[in-house]
Write a structure and sequence with these properties.
Number of strands: 27
Largest sheet: 9 strands, antiparallel
């Protein structure tokens, strides 16, 4: 371990937990000693620490004041890496107005950033992360007034943000470079994040666009995997089809002809991968979504939802949503006589489920139908950095 030492020494100010900082920061104006007209990120961070001292901020300031052995420079940033014990990094970049302590282990983390306002003030943000149980992520947001050399709390984009679904997690990130503030939504989809980007207008951050991290998905359990960014999708929606509180992801392409139906796909998680719930395009037709009436020995309940899809070869696909994820897939194919006439359907297991599950679904009685009704919004795919 290179330099992470306990920051509390004899005679030192008592260090605060995130919950204690949260209880105080909004009502605690912060005096910035020698702040002047253009204080850098370290000056503002030091003032914050003097008013609301925490262990993790103290470690960053200690590294700034007395760089440890092994500190290196990368462009304008000064970086200390430790890959022996705690696997942490301290980065300080006064030129770009950013500093952080990041870790892959259970030590506390932080990041901070400063923006120059068009009225001569500064906007300063500190993000504190405690990897305790429960995890406590805290964002402190300040306006610095050079006339009074004081930072006062103000509302951040988080204060006006409302989670679209209760059963989801979200976090945020401060820009290491650039000016965007990003809220990241984690909807329990594997390897995929929805990012709400707030651009900087010179005084505050305003919602600008939505980005989705690129991912692969599989169509009804078939062998081929599709790269989402290569399919031409430009709009997205999140729809809670089964009422579980966990949504399915809907992606839509622009119409080639206004008279044609929407070209879309509905996706959800199955065994740690993204899989198709249903698709509506030139090859497939979404027949609908429905709950089924309970039936003796059936592997589903009235709360489970079935997505019914057919294709141009008259094959039927059933994806069963259970508690916000795909429970299993069922496929049936037309059975023909010697003359090639359709005489019924034969259950087929497409790699998942069992034959009795197929029979139950194919012969199920519909309890009630469910409408998709997506609220389509524009988005763009991005390759999210690790």
């Amino acid at each position: 371990m290179t330099c992470l030492l306990v920051g509390l020494t004899a005679g030192a100010t008592e260090l605060l937990s995130n919950s204690e900082v949260d209880a105080r920061w909004r009502k605690t104006p912060v005096r910035v000693k020698n702040g002047g007209q253009a204080p850098n990120v370290v000056t503002l961070l030091r003032a914050f620490h003097e008013a609301l001292p925490t262990w993790v901020v103290g470690e960053v300031l200690k590294q700034n004041d007395h760089p440890a052995k092994g500190t290196r420079r990368d462009g304008s940033a000064v970086i200390l890496d430790d890959h022996d014990d705690d696997d942490f990094r301290i980065l300080i970049d006064t030129r770009n107005g950013y500093a952080d302590l990041a870790s892959m282990t259970d030590i506390d983390q932080m990041s901070c950033c400063v923006w120059r306002r068009s009225n001569g003030h500064r906007l300063f943000a500190v993000s504190l992360y405690e990897q305790h149980d429960p995890v406590q992520n805290l964002l402190c947001w300040y306006d610095y007034d050079p006339a009074t050399q004081t930072m006062k709390a103000e509302k951040s984009p988080i204060d006006n943000y409302k989670k679209p679904f209760e059963r989801m997690d979200f976090g945020w990130s401060l820009p290491m470079q650039g000016t965007d503030f990003i809220i990241r939504e984690y909807h329990h989809f594997p390897s995929m994040t929805v990012m709400q980007v707030y651009g900087w207008d010179g005084m505050e951050h305003r919602y600008t666009k939505t980005q989705i991290s690129d991912f692969r998905y599989q169509c009804f359990g078939e062998d081929d995997w599709l790269q989402a960014s290569e399919q031409g999708f430009t709009e997205y929606a999140l729809v809670d089809l089964d009422g579980s509180g966990s949504p399915s992801l809907c992606l839509r392409k622009p119409k080639d002809d206004p008279e044609h139906s929407d070209n879309y796909v509905v996706l959800n998680e199955f065994r740690g991968e993204m899989q198709t719930v249903t698709v509506n395009d030139e090859m497939h037709q979404t027949e609908g979504f429905f709950h089924v009436k309970p039936e003796e020995d059936a592997p589903w309940t009235e709360k489970d939802l079935v997505a019914f899809t057919s294709d141009f070869m008259h094959t039927h696909y059933y994806a069963i949503l259970q508690k916000g994820s795909i429970g299993y897939f069922v496929t049936d194919e037309p059975e023909t006589d010697d003359d090639g006439n359709d005489i019924g359907y034969t259950p087929k297991i497409n790699g998942y489920g069992a034959k009795d599950e197929s029979i139950h679904i194919i012969h199920a009685s519909v309890a009630d139908k469910v409408s998709l009704n997506p609220d389509w919004k524009p988005f763009e795919f991005v390759e999210e950095e690790p």
